[in-house]
């Protein structure tokens, strides 16, 4: 069974990779967000979770389209890094599809660093979706599960509240703890980056 504790030879690379996964794959700038979380001591084998909520100054319909076309938005969030996102199985934006995210431009990221994420469900009417990592990403850090559920709630015609719940399991250890904390900090930052992109590119979505 994989352990979360890095060896002395790779601890720095592991640390940089955790930061990378949280702040580039989940690259959001948190100006305002609140969370309701399960107390976290480590990634034990018991199921753990945390919840985040972000209010954004874009219509719910635009953000929903952006989330469904995230492979088109992603390259604009961290330009020049060499990071890519592509659908490798199924049809983009359809349940069952698998997206490959490769990390090309972060110092300390292991060679060939990547994450594969499967879209589990998507409901256009309710504006909800769920996904789970199936390879790479958090799974190489000692987690045995890392999945999320997202829901959009319109606030009038020009704003939206995004709520996301992350559920995870792991073997425990400081790298897992750090990854969770980085995700809690980085995910709102990422959605702020998406918001900024949509506000500056009003023809998209």
Account of the protein in words:
It is a single chain. The chain is an alpha+beta fold. The protein has a single domain, classed as 2-Layer Sandwich (Alpha-D-Glucose-1,6-Bisphosphate, Chain A, domain 4), CATH 3.30.530. Helices cover 29% and strands 34% of the residues. The protein contains 4 helices and 8 strands, in the order αββααββββββα. The chain has an 8-stranded antiparallel beta sheet. The N terminus is likely disordered.
- Helix coverage percent: 25-40%
Strand order of the largest sheet: 1-2-8-7-6-5-4-3
Beta-strand content: 25-35%
Shape: globular
Main pleated sheet: 8 strands, antiparallel
What's the total helix number? 4
- The figure for the number of domains is 1
Helix-strand pattern, N to C?
HEEHHEEEEEEH
GO biological process, one term: abscisic acid-activated signaling pathway
Domain Bet v I/Major latex protein: 50-201
GO molecular function: abscisic acid binding; protein phosphatase inhibitor activity; signaling receptor activity
Organism: Marchantia polymorpha
């Amino acid at each position: 069974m994989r352990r979360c504790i890095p060896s002395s030879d790779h601890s720095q690379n592991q640390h940089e990779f955790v930061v990378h996964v949280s702040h580039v794959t989940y690259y959001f700038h948190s100006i305002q967000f609140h969370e309701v979380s399960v107390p976290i001591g480590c990634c034990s084998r018991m199921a753990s979770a945390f919840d985040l909520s972000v209010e954004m100054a874009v219509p719910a319909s635009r953000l929903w389209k952006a989330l469904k076309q995230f492979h088109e938005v992603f390259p604009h969030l961290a330009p020049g890094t060499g990071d890519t996102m592509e659908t490798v199985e199924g049809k983009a934006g359809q349940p069952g599809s698998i997206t490959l995210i490769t990390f090309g431009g972060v110092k300390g990221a292991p060679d060939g660093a990547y994450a594969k994420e499967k879209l589990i469900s998507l409901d256009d009417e309710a504006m909800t979706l769920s996904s789970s990592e199936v390879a790479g990403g958090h799974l190489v850090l000692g987690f045995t599960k890392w999945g999320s559920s997202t829901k959009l709630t319109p606030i009038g015609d020009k704003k939206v509240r995004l709520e996301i719940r992350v559920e995870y399991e792991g073997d425990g250890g400081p790298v897992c703890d750090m990854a969770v904390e980085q995700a809690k900090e980085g995910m709102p930052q990422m959605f702020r980056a998406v918001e900024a992109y949509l506000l500056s590119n009003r023809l998209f979505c």
